[in-house]
Every structure is written in C-alpha cells, then in structure tokens.
Write a structure and sequence with these properties.
This protein has helices spanning 3-13, 15-25, 27-38, 42-70, 72-91, 96-124, 130-159, 165-174, 177-186, 194-210, 214-229, 235-250, 253-258, 260-265, 271-299, 301-324, 332-338, 360-372, 381-391, 397-412, 415-426, 429-461, 463-484, 493-496, and strands spanning 326-328, 392-394. By secondary structure, the protein is mainly alpha-helical. It is globular, with a radius of gyration of 24 Å. The protein starts with a helix and ends with a helix.
Length: 497
C-alpha cells in the first residue's frame, strides 16, 4: 500500500481514539454540576465515571473476535454508530441512571475502538513505521482528552453565569455528537485490511480440511488459537502482555484523567482554576505522547516503559507527599461561603472551629461527634461534604499540580502508547485478534475497578495513601518489565519469542 494512503487511513481510523478520549474525560467537568444536582455519594460518583469502562471490557473481549469474523472496517463502522447514539442519549438524559446507561453504550464503542484500531493500523503499516503509526491511536486519545478539558473550560467560562447548570453539563456532553458523525462518514472511504482478507482465505482452507462445518468451524479455530496461546511456546509472551495490560490501568491513569477537576478543586483553587489546570494536563499529555511517537522506533518499547514507570513512581510519591501536607480547620468564612450561616444547627461546630486537624479522617470524626451530641440523625450529606471541602487547606498546592503533571507526562511517553504497540507486535497474525481481545478485556476490567473504587479509596484511605499506592504499583511494574519483557522493535514474531 502506498505510504500516503497508509497515513491517510491511519488518521481516519484513529479518530476512534479521539472519541474515546473525549467521551471518557468529558465527565471530569460534568461531575462538578451533576454531583450536587443528583446528590451523588462516592459510590454513585464512581459508577457514573466508570460505567463506560464496565461495558468496554466486554466490547474488548468480543470486538477482536468480531473483527476477525466480519472484518475490521465493518466493526469500526459499528463502533462509530454507537459513539453517535451514545453522545445523543447522554445529552438528553433526564436522570443519573440514564446518563450511566448512555455512557455504558459509549463504553461499547471505545472498547471496540481500542482493540480494532491498532489491529487495523498494524496490518496496513510497514514494519519500520509500525510503532509510530500505531501510536497515532494514543495521540488521538490524548487530543480527545485535551478537547474535552478545553471544551468544558470554555463552556463554563462563556456560559457559566448566563444559563442554568443543567444546560451546562448537557452542552459539555453534546459536543461529542459532531466528531462521532464525522467518523461514521469518513470510515466509508477506508479499504478492508489486506491481512484480514488474506486470513479469510487461509481460514476457509482450514475449515474445509478440518471440519467442513463453516458455522462452527470459526469458533473451533478460536479455541485452537487459545490453546496455542497457552502452550509453552506462547505462554510467557501471553502472560507478560496480560501483565502490561493490567499495570497500565492500576497505576491510576484514568482516575487522574476522569477526576482531574475534582482533584485540583481539593487544593483550594476553585472551579474555574481547576478546569484551567485540566487543560494544562491535556497539553502535557499531548506533548509527551508526541515524544513517544518520535522516539518509540528509535529508543525501543522496553526503554520507554522503564523510563516512564520510573517517572510515575517519583510523581505519585510527590503527589502523595503534597496531600500529606494538609490540614482542616473550620471558620466563619466557610459558613458564609456555603450560605448556610443561618442553618439552625451550625452553632454545634463552634467547639471544634478553633482546632486544626492534620488528617481528614480525624476531622470527619470530629464533625460526627459534634453533630451526634445534639442529633440522633446523620449530618446532611451535602452539608457534610461542603464542610470537609471548605475546611481543607493544602500547604503546597503546587506540589500536587507538579506531581500530577509529572505522572501524566511519564504515562504519556510510556504505558499509554507503548502498550498498544507491543500488543500489535507480540502476537502472530492468526493469534492477534484473540490475544488482544483477552488482554483488552482485562485492561478494561482493571480500568473500571480503578475508576469505580477511586472515590471510595479517597474517602476511606485518604488522598496521600491512595496516591502512594499508585507509586508502589508502578514500582512492581518496573521490576517485572525489567526482568521479563523482551524488546520488539524491528523484530519478527519468532525473534520475540
């Protein structure tokens, strides 16, 4: 295939990555408005954010197999249609349940895109440019992140005081409709993968020789491929691929991306500044993804992974320390800002307003004790959350910002793009669809658990411990990759094994 056509088709199919990045991260700004509107607790917040990842893991498990069955092009066209329907339904949702269901539909789309796009690109790209071209998927994902952050910021900046908050979050979600429709139209001009077409011919021969039953034969071949992946000749490669798929998510990247605005708001900078800082995250993400794009075929996959994981360890350590240097103290100004000065029960907190607490859990317990002295019922959740938020003081908010930005930069030039390049290179043409589907399923499962549990972790374990745990996980990942991951740059499958 001509080089200019390879680039053209790569850019088109990679729009699926852009839509994934936008769809997944737009919730960061939406949360600011729907949390008070729907009175979300940490469990419901985690579910709304993570619901796409929950459905994506099933799409990841099946989309590679589906693309083996009906073709890469048709599968991507289905993905684009689902993106469009999901964006439309999200925009007109009337309840938190309908928002979650619409986002789960979107999860089916980006689960499919994350699997099929790198497969398609790896099958049309020449070997010496494969790493760079497959990385276009990740580049478009981070462009999607930036577009969502920037879109949320501009909508709040220009319409935040002139329209109802219910319309603000609907506008944020509705922006995705246009690129989803564009993706659906552009996919019509790409050709089918030549590798897939060749494999179809081979499979027809295998079916005729082995079973003669075309309907059941395809499933039988997949079972044969799975047995081969677990055979001694493939098992180590399969296990390291699974490990990288899981470690990419449990280092916390999507917790950072999807809760970014809430994280920065905790440092006391306010909503507008928090949204602005998420835009900085998007810019850093793009810059360092470009670094990976330029260096991946020169420095190699293994080097970038090890360097990136080292950066994650340091950055999450800094973030953990930054949140460790925080205190909580009530003051009259907090009640004034909350506009609940005349609340009949606010006087009960005077006994603790002169004290400073260096641990969130200790402060929460003090609030509960003060309240329980006069009331049998629990403190209203919205007032409770506002008191905790208003009393929090971060001694070095810049340290949290630097730690988060360092983490994003480290991930963007390593685990982000490199994992998908590795998966496209570690497996043969016959095993690639099945293997990437299995790894993708586990990747999405890890992503969903990380996103879902993140608010609960912060609530139960505290900020410092949560970010510190991400650093420890990254350290484990560094050790395993150092000892067990082979380099795949410019190598044939037989050379990797």
């Amino acid at each position: 295939m001509e080089p200019n056509k390879v680039l053209k088709y790569t850019l088109i199919v990679s729009i699926g990555g852009f839509l994934f990045g936008f769809d997944a991260s737009v919730i960061s700004g939406v949360l600011i408005y729907i949390t008070p509107d729907f009175d979300l607790d940490p469990l419901n917040t985690g579910w709304v954010v993570s619901s796409p990842a929950f459905s994506a893991m099933f799409a990841m498990l099946s989309s590679g197999l589906l693309s083996d069955r009906i073709g890469r092009k048709k599968t991507l066209q289905i993905v684009a249609l689902i993106y469009f329907i999901s964006a439309l339904l999200s925009t007109i949702s009337q309840s938190i349940i309908s928002i979650a269901l619409a986002r789960m539909l979107g999860g089916l789309a980006f689960g499919g895109a994350l699997i099929v796009v790198p497969i398609y690109i790896s099958e049309i790209a020449p070997a010496d440019k494969r790493g760079r071209l497959v990385s276009f998927q990740q580049l478009n994902i981070v462009f999607g992140f930036l577009a969502a952050y920037f879109s949320n910021y501009l909508i709040t900046l220009y319409f935040g005081t002139s329209i109802h908050e219910d319309l603000l979050w609907r506008m944020m979600l509705g922006v995705e409709i246009a690129p989803a429709l564009l993706y659906l139209m552009l996919l019509r001009i790409i050709p089918e993968s030549p590798v897939w077409e060749h494999q179809q011919k081979k499979r027809r021969v295998v079916l005729n020789e082995t079973t003669g039953a075309k309907f059941l034969g395809w499933f039988r071949i997949q079972r044969i491929y799975l047995q081969e992946l677990w055979s001694p000749s493939w098992r180590n490669i399969f296990l390291i691929a699974i490990f990288i798929g899981i470690i990419q998510q449990i280092t916390g990247i999507n917790a950072i991306f999807f809760y970014a605005t809430s994280i920065f708001e905790k440092t006391g900078v306010g909503i507008d500044a928090s949204l602005a800082q998420t835009v900085i995250i998007g810019v850093v993400n793009i810059v360092f993804t470009l670094v990976a794009l330029v260096t991946i075929d020169r420095l190699g996959r293994r080097f970038l992974l090890l360097a990136g994981l080292a950066g994650i360890i340091i950055s999450m350590g800094i973030t953990s320390y930054g949140f460790m240097q925080q205190s909580y103290q009530l003051s009259n100004s907090i009640f004034e800002e909350m506009e609940i000065v005349e609340h009949p029960s606010m006087g009960i907190f005077e006994s603790i307003s002169s004290e400073s607490y260096h641990n969130e859990e200790d402060f929460k317990l003090a609030l509960e004790r003060a309240w329980s002295q006069y009331h049998e019922s629990d403190l209203e959740p919205n007032i409770y959350a506002q008191l905790v938020k208003g009393a929090r003081m971060i001694e070095h908010p810049w340290m949290v910002l630097m730690g988060i930005l360092g983490f994003v930069a480290s991930f963007a030039c390593s685990l982000g793009p490199v994992m998908w390049v590795l998966l496209s290179e570690l497996f043969s043409d016959t095993h690639r669809g099945l293997a990437i589907s299995i790894v993708g399923f586990l990747n999405s499962l890890a992503s969903w658990l990380t996103q879902f549990l993140f608010p609960l972790e912060l609530n139960i374990l505290g900020d410092s411990f949560t970010y510190g745990s991400f650093a420890v996980i990254a350290l484990i990942g560094w050790i395993v990759i150092y000892y067990y991951l082979p380099e795949t740059k410019n190598k044939l499958i037989t050379e990797v094994k």
